Amino acid sequence: MRKRRNLFTILTIFLFSFISNANLPPPENEVLESGNAAEINRFEDSKSLNLGRFPIALPADSVHEFDITKYIIEVKLVPASTTNKFRGHVTIQGKSQITGLNILSLNFVGMVVDSCKVNSSPALFTRNNNLLYINLNGSYNPGNSFAAEVFYHGIPQAGFYFDQNVYGVPVYYSFTEPFDSRYWFPCYDYPHDKATCEVICTVPTGNFVVSNGRLYSVVNNQDGTLTFRWMEIYPIATYLISIAASSFAQIDTFVQLEENRLPVQYWVYPQDSPKAELDFKKTPGMIQFFSGLWGDYPFLPDKYSIVQAELGGAMEHQTCTFWGFPLTGDARYEYIAAHELAHQWWGDWVTCNDFANIWLNEGFASYAEALWQEHEYGPTAFKNHLMAFEGNIFAARNGSVKYPIYNPPTTYLFGTAVYKKGAWVLHMLRQILGDSLFNNGLAYYGQSRSFSSANTEQFKAALESYSGQELDWFFDQWVYSPNYPIYKWSWVYTFVAGKFYLDLSLSQAQVTPPVFSMPVEFKLSTAAKDSDFTIYDTLRNQRLSLVLSSAPTGIVIDPNYKLLSADTVSRYPYLAGDVDNNGLVLMGDIVYLIKILFSGFPLPSPVAAADVNGDCQISLADIIYLVNYFFHHGPWPRLGCPG
């Protein structure tokens, strides 16, 4: 003991005779990712093309002057005509929702209106600013019903297309999301007003017409035409009402859902029929899988069908997906088939109340792709799908991702954030709630809004009601705010007095929002075992200290892929050599180091600050190293063993 006291006294006197400030090393350069990579939406290219024609409406309140209850759409296609290819007669059944309704205002663009009727009597009409105003020939109070008819003709400027496929065969089809239904039939063209629908379509012989719901009749007319009558008994949004007609081959299969046998049908170009059987082979299994997650396929006993058409991408019309991708025979677009099928629940069964809430359609269907991968191909395929989404999100950080997924700018309505980040938002909700509450909560949400529409607050309320958890904190930062957390993290450790001391630093570098409050999971590997621990990160900068019985060999952030984030390992944010935690490197640090070793003074924070020679332990060698730094121009102090 006498020798240790003498050494302490000599070193202390010596040091206080030569106190001086130390020069700090240059700061580490910090460069955050930047760029403006193009966003690619392979699913539904045509949706983005449709955006330029009409501005996205403000968030809807689901209340307007009238409620449409049924559309009866009678269409005759005359492709040989140069001026009158499309001849329409639409009956619109509805009810007043106000006192004294006397004018019916409908969305209708282009084509010529020949005449109108109300309750079978002729009615006056006017057109202005892409609206059709029909005089109802009287006044209607709440609950009073009416039936308005519109007779029209021409060539649609959009929404309905006369095309041909790669084999030179004519193909006639509709494609309208978000607001192009108004180009081919007069309607109240907003997604929150659903109605049942009947489509009666007459085409030249040799064509087969596919539409929503069930086929009730086919009439062979004497003028060389066929008339197909389809009926959808379930409420449907206008942008989901569809017609496709061509010379199709029909492939029939089915899926058994408990007592219900659901027809599954594919109408494809005959030349592509063998490939279609392979490409769509797993569709019945997908229907069973999604039914097990969210409840039975919503449109029993109608059908589920996939129909080839010449659109870009694919489109989830109710009971009737239109498919514009090549049929390859190797199922390379299986994940897209899963995406479009999932829309039958999320988009068709429950439709976004307005396009400010489009992530409730597209984020859900995108996550369903990953869920199918997990179910069919295992956890690695699931993780790879999420990793691909994450890469898309990072590439769009200066595009759609810098806006919230709720109510994005029109340019990004069908962008990466809505699809890929929307999927990740659901994945993180699943981690917060757990599989059971998440899956059953989605089913509960679906049942509570079935055959209707929903907005984000209604979705949140349904999950809160089912789970018993308050979720404002999550939705505020992930749905109503832009971006994602950018983590910079690091760790150091050392050994002293028979224990290993590990310090971990976690900071957030994104600008908006300044903090994402989320549980952040880490995997810690030591010589003895691997273990997981979680930091509930609620601060811009946060540190954690652990005492271990064996040396750490590695740490991984988010090992189980639960959190959307960019993360980089950086230098631990602490001044090496500052043993006494005063923000400077002075000879007083040598004194404090001596006191740690010989007088039992408290360890610094981080503990590795006392391991100035970086040999993974605190010992007399660190005192010698620091003395050498001050008096013999030795190397700069180190900070323990870096992670």
Description:
By secondary structure, the chain is an alpha+beta fold. Among the domains are: 185 residues, Immunoglobulin-like, CATH 2.60.40.1730; 159 residues, Sandwich (Immunoglobulin-like), CATH 2.60.40.1840. It is 25% helix and 32% strand. The chain contains 13 helices and 30 strands. The strands form seven sheets. Strands 5-4-8-2-1-11-14-13 form an eight-stranded mixed sheet, with no helix packed on it. It has a five-stranded mixed sheet with strand order 16-17-18-20-19, with helices on one face. Strands 23, 24, 27, 29 and 30 form a five-stranded mixed sheet that branches. Strand 25 and strand 26 form a beta hairpin. The radius of gyration is 33 Å and the shape is elongated. 44% of the residues are buried. The N terminus is likely disordered.
Would you tell me which CATH topology of the domain at 63-247 applies? Immunoglobulin-like
Integer average pLDDT: 91
Q: What fraction, in percent, of the residue positions are helical?
A: 10-25%
**CATH homology superfamily name of the domain at 63-247:** tricorn interacting facor f3 domain
Question: Residue ranges: pLDDT <50 for 5 or more in a row?
Answer: 1-38
Question: Oligomerization state of this entry?
Answer: single chain
CATH architecture of the domain at 63-247: Sandwich
- How much beta, percentage-wise? 25-35%
Compute the number of strand runs.
30
- State the distance separating the first and last CA atoms: 36 Å
Rg measurement, Å: 33 Å
Specify the overall morphology.
elongated
For the record, the CATH class of the domain at 63-247 is: Mainly Beta
Order of strands in the sheet with most strands: 5-4-8-2-1-11-14-13
SS-based class: alpha+beta
Our count of helices gives 13
Largest sheet: 8 strands, mixed
